[in-house]
Design goal:
The protein has 427 residues and is of the alpha+beta class. It has helices at residues 56-74, 111-117, 125-146, 193-209, 224-227, 262-266, 273-288, 303-315, 320-323, 329-332, 350-356, 362-372, 386-390, 393-396, 403-409; strands spanning 15-16, 21-29, 33-40, 45-52, 86-94, 97-105, 148-149, 158-160, 235-237, 244-245, 342-343, 423-424. The protein has a six-stranded antiparallel sheet, with helices on one face. α3 (125-146) packs antiparallel against α7 (273-288) and α11 packs antiparallel against α12. Bound molecules: adenosine-5'-diphosphate and magnesium ion. The site of magnesium ion has 4 residues, from loops.
Length: 427
């Protein structure tokens, strides 16, 4: 992908925007971009530099993303809405073409990494509640103040706030930032010693951000669910590459599969409530360590059909009117609103799943389900808004069974996925 139209190859200490930003190390990458930690010489602080691929379609996408980010920053001058802030943007010409660049505030680890550090066991419910509050404030801002639908909410796209002092180098203890290219670093920096050292520091920093003080590898991970206690769970919504205004939509197929709402699968039209469906799926994942729905195509049925079946096994039968109202409905449902090719669904309600598989107490399961289930309403317009969710009593309840107790007893997760019980029905 490092060719004409593709990514821009960055080396440690490369300069951008006439020398204002100096690349420090790679933070991450996506389909369209690489993201680097950079030192901002104007403000003496660290920023995230998102460098888009240079082909025309990526340039278009970046211009759109900048447009969305500008309106986000415009409406939130005090930076208090838990949505990532755009600091600057410019174009950078390199050997692969001209790249749109976005300068964003530097944030910490993603919720996906947090879930991984916790060894997919689920976070303590009090932590989940905290994360929920920040994400909901962000969503309420996007939805009700700006009219923006994110359309790709998932754990990777929610980043913890870095607790590091931005005036200091986050990856060096007391050292100064890299202002000049290190000598002899001529191979693109990929294997150079300094890169390796920076990477090691970065890993440690990332572990610190998520409440870990030691190396993330090895048996230390086992203690992580205890270590994250006492850590501020503030977080922000990022990645507006696919966002749209509710009244200016362009994509029909939106959202990452596991977080996709039923109306998107059925092509019945969508609005802000698709983000609420993804939000609820993320909350389940935070609390249990497992994705809620992981559909797979099988013999005689597609991934979409499996997905609809999994939804109904957990949430009950989809009302006939809703099941039959989308452009895809005829492919999947008969006129009674039953799936054509997947029969005999094995129903397992959410509270029972939480108790049986994840060892929730009956009380925790009931309260948590009461928060989540309205968000999984098959009727999009009946799902609570972000603002309504913020009022939910579950967000403000204090006591929950400490999750070490839950986790100790979850020796082996029982597979309750019912895909293997599905019966193929010939056409
Ligand atoms: P894409 O649109 O290409 O998916 P993203 O905006 O999702 O790009 O960024 C890709 C990755 O870069 C993220 O998953 C994250 O690891 C990292 N990243 C993005 N923005 C920031 C930021 N503001 N601070 C720190 N890391 C970031
Ligand atoms: Mg992304």
């Amino acid at each position: 992908s490092y060719r004409k139209g593709g990514y821009h190859a960055v080396r440690v200490a490369d300069h951008f925007a006439g020398g204002r930003y100096i690349a420090q190390r790679k933070l991450g990458w996506g389909q369209f971009s690489t993201v680097w930690l950079a030192y901002d010489t104007t403000t003496s602080s660290y920023v995230a530099l998102k460098i888009q691929k240079s082909a025309a379609e990526f340039v278009q996408a970046a211009i759109h993303e900048i447009d969305v980010l500008l309106s986000i920053a415009d409406g939130d001058p005090s930076n208090s809405k838990f949505v990532v802030q755009l600091i600057d943007h410019f174009k950078h010409t390199g050997p692969n073409g001209q790249h749109q660049c976005m300068v964003l505030e530097f944030l910490g680890d993603s919720l996906l990494r947090l879930i991984r550090y916790n060894r997919y066991k689920g976070l303590p419910l009090n932590k989940v509640r905290e994360i929920c509050k920040y994400v909901l404030i962000g969503l309420d801002y996007l939805h009700s103040e700006l009219g923006i639908i994110h359309t790709d909410l998932k754990p990777e796209n929610i980043l913890l706030l870095s607790t590091i002092d931005h005036s200091k180098d986050p990856f060096r203890s007391g050292g100064s930032p890299i202002l000049e290219r290190p000598e002899g670093n001529t191979n693109g920096g990929i294997t150079s010693l300094i890169e390796k050292r920076l990477r090691r520091r970065a890993r440690t920093a990332v572990a610190k951000i998520s409440g870990r003080t030691a190396s993330i590898e090895g048996r230390e991970a086992a203690k992580s669910s205890r270590n994250i206690n006492g850590v501020d769970m503030r977080c922000k919504i990022v990645d507006f590459g696919n966002a749209c205004w509710a009244d200016k939509q362009f994509a029909e197929e939106i959202q990452t599969r596991q977080y996709r709402a039923p109306e998107v699968i059925l092509k019945s039209g969508y609005s802000f409530s698709v983000d609420m469906w993804s939000f609820a799926s993320i909350v389940f994942e935070l609390a249990t360590g497992d994705m809620l729905f992981t559909p797979k195509g099988g013999q005689g049925f597609s991934e979409d059909e499996d997905h609809l079946a999994l939804m109904m096994e957990l949430l009950g039968k989809m009302p006939r009117k809703i099941a039959t109202s989308g452009a895809m409905s005829k492919d999947y449902f008969d006129r009674h609103g039953d799936l054509k090719r997947i029969r005999r669904l094995k129903y397992l309600p959410l509270d029972k799943l939480l108790i049986d598989k994840y060892k929730f107490s009956a009380n925790d399961a009931r309260e948590f389900s009461a928060f989540l289930l309205p968000l999984f309403d098959f009727a999009p317009e009946k799902r609570p808004t972000a603002r309504q969710c913020l009022q939910h009593p579950w967000l403000n309840c204090k006591e929950s069974t400490p999750n070490e107790m839950r986790n100790e007893s979850t020796v082996e997760k029982v597979n309750v996925g019912m895909s293997n019980l599905k019966i193929k029905v010939g056409k």
